[in-house]
Amino acid sequence: QVQLVESGGGLVQPGGSLRVSCEASKVTFSTYYMGWVRQTPGKGLEWVSTINADGGSTYYANSMKGRFTIFRDNAQNTLYLQMNNLQPEDTALYYCAQDTGWGTFASWGQGTQVTVSS
Fold first, then answer.
1. What are the phi and psi torsion angles at 37 (to 5°)?
2. pLDDT the model gives residue 84
3. Are strands 104-106 and 92-101 parallel, antiparallel or unpaired?
4. What is the distance between the alpha carbons of residues 35 and 96, in angstroms, rounded to a whole number?
5. pLDDT at residue 26, as a whole number
6. What's the CA dihedral at 36, 37, 40, 42 to 10 degrees?
7. Which pLDDT belongs to residue 27?
8. In the prediction, which pLDDT does 96 show?
9. Alpha-carbon gap, residue 25 to 40, rounded angstroms
10. 80-118: b or e for each residue (b if 16 or more CB lie within 10 Å)?
11. What are the C-alpha distances in Å from 40 to residues 46, 82, 92?
């Protein structure tokens, strides 16, 4: 099972940008589909984005399209989520996880908090 550690969260003003990262412990990271999922007290868990193993294909929830970009560096075993034009409703705990398909995820990290507020 891969160990995942997220970082990069913080407080940002509406309209601002933030990049969160997820470092994986295993070299087999490059063979996994990976995703970001966020959790808010009101909405529960919400899928954000997924990227395939080589980074050539990306998928986004509708509300994130055009604002968020998922990418990965397999040489560094690291997954990223670049978030632009952040809004208060993007406030959440952001998790990275191995996307095992059909809406299921494994090997969750501990999460990194993103707060969007003026």
1. -135, 140
2. 98
3. antiparallel
4. 6
5. 76
6. 140
7. 73
8. 96
9. 27
10. bbebeebeeebbbbbbbbbbeeeeebebebebbebebee
11. 8, 19, 5
* DSSP secondary structure, the chain, as one string: ---EEEE--EEE-TT--EEEEEEES-GGGGGS-EEEEEEETTTEEEEEEEE-TTS--EEE-GGGTTTEEEEEEGGGTEEEEEE-S--GGG-EEEEEEEEEETTEEES----EEEEE--
Quote the distance between the C-alpha of residue 59 and its chain's center.
12
Beta pairing, strands 10-12 & 112-116 = parallel
The pLDDT profile of the chain, 118 residues, written as one tens digit per residue, is: 789 999 999 999 999 999 999 999 977 899 999 999 999 978 889 999 999 999 999 999 999 999 999 999 999 999 999 999 999 999 999 999 999 998 899 899 999 999 999 9
Token digits of residue 107: 């090997």
- The residue whose two tokens read 């604002």 is 67
Q: Which two tokens stand for residue 43?
A: 């909405």
